[in-house]
Structure formats: structure tokens, C-alpha cells
Amino acid sequence: MRKKIVAGNWKCNTNLKEGIALASEVEKLYTQSGVKDVLTIVSPPFVHLTEVAKVLKNVKLSAQNCAAEPKGAFTGEVSAEMVKSTGAEFCIIGHSERREYYGDTNSILAKKVKLAMANGLTPIFCIGEVLAERESGKLFDVIKTQLQDGIFFLSAEEFGKVIIAYEPVWAIGTGVVATPAQAQEMHKFIREQISLKYGKSVADSTSILYGGSCKASNAKELFANPDVDGGLIGGAALKAEEFLGIITAF
Ligand code: PEP
Fold first, then answer.
1. Measured in angstroms, how far is the CA atom of residue 127 from the centroid of ligand 1?
2. What is the pLDDT of residue 30?
3. Chain centroid to CA 216: how far?
4. Residue 22 above 80 pLDDT?
5. Best mutation site among 164, 213, 238 for ligand 1, i.e. most ligand atoms within 8 A of its Cβ?
6. Which of 86, 91, 147, 150 could crosslink 106 through cysteines, CB 3.0-4.6 Å?
7. Which residues, 6 or more positions from 215, have their beta carbon under 8 angstroms from its beta carbon?
8. How far is CA 139 from CA 57, 190, 203, in A?
9. pTM higher than 0.90 for the full model?
10. Looking at ligand 1, which residue's alpha carbon is closest to its atom 6?
């Protein structure tokens, strides 16, 4: 059985004090809720990781990115090994904002995936099409290429540890959410691609998260789809109560 997962991506929000307070509140509400079968993850900015790790027990910790090089003269970069040493277990890789604003190509992302895995981090690998690609009917080709070039170099055993997040770029931070049918159609396609590459059993056990303007009020209908295993949450992860509403929406 694949896992249900809700992961919050805080992006470039919260100072350290606010980040610790938010993580503490998420930990408290999640623990009080008694929910046991939803893997819950928060992804604060890099500089918060060590301190946030101290206030988490049941909620897991992720970084939002890692360097494409293992170490060395790469000013401002944070390596996968550094991320792992904070206590984080997960690492978001390939978020559309990294692809769009920081030049993270599929081949750079493949290097990040490799380093994350080598350091014992579970990649939360993001894929998604922009609006023009959807409207011109290229969406399935785009997703296929992102998978093939960014992560399908892994062995079946390695891929079995990965989490995929489908995030249509036109839905991220826009308030425009994919319809449950649009989400299901793409998640099913992604699972088929995984099955073609790695076989049915790996495909059936891979968690595929939906991301893009998901909130407590629309999570239930999205998560009700057979191939939607949870969510990668941006804005709605910045309020602990709202985030809990998503965790309890299955
Ligand atoms: C995201 O950035 O991963 C995301 C899904 O953002 P939002 O929920 O704000 O659309």
C-alpha cells in the first residue's frame, strides 16, 4: 500500500522565530489530531532546518532544494549532505519556481536527485506543465520528458523510495486549482509512465502528490481520486490550522 502524504512547502517565508512557532503548532495539532496514517512533512527554509528539527517528533522534516554538487567552491549553495546533517529526511527537488527562476534544468535536477539519494534523503520530485503547454496539448509530453530526463535514471529499487509531486504550474499560488478530473487524469498518466519504466508493483507503491492551490476546502475532492495520494502544499501550509484541515481531508 502506498503512503498518504501531506507536505508543506514554506518557500521563502517566515523568519526563524516564526518558523519555529509554525513548526511547533503543526507538530502539536497533528499529534493531537490522532491521525496516524498520513505522513506529514514540513519544508522550512534551509536556515531553519536545525532549529525546526528540535521541535518536531511526529512531523517529518524536508528541505526545499539542495545543491547539484556534493561540496566545494559553490558560494551560497547548500549540499545534500548538509541538509541530511540537520535531521531532514526529505528534499523537494525540481519545484517549478526553481525551474523557472533559478535555471534548474532536467539534467541539473538529475544531479540533485542523485546526491539527495546518495545522502539518504528522499526526493519529493516535482513535475508540472505551464498553461501554454496544457492549452497546446503538449502537457503529457512535458511530463514524460521531466520524468525521463530528471529521475528515470534511478534503478527500480532507488525509485521505489521517491515521492512524485504533480504540480501544474498554472495552479501554483494562483488560487486556480486543477479539477479533480484533471488531477486524476495526469496522476494516472504518471503512474502509467512509472509502470512502463519500473513495473506495476513499483508504480502501485509510489505516492504521487498533487500541488497547486490546494487547501482544506478542496483537498477532500482531490484526495478522493484513486491516483492522488496527498498534496504538496504552499500557501495553505503557512497556517497550522489550515494545514491540519488538509491532513485530515482523506
Ligand atoms: C507549491 O509551491 O508547491 C504549491 C503547491 O503552492 P500553492 O499551494 O501556494 O499553490
1. 12
2. 98
3. 17
4. yes
5. 213
6. 150
7. 233, 235, 236, 242, 245, 246
8. 39, 11, 20
9. yes
10. 234
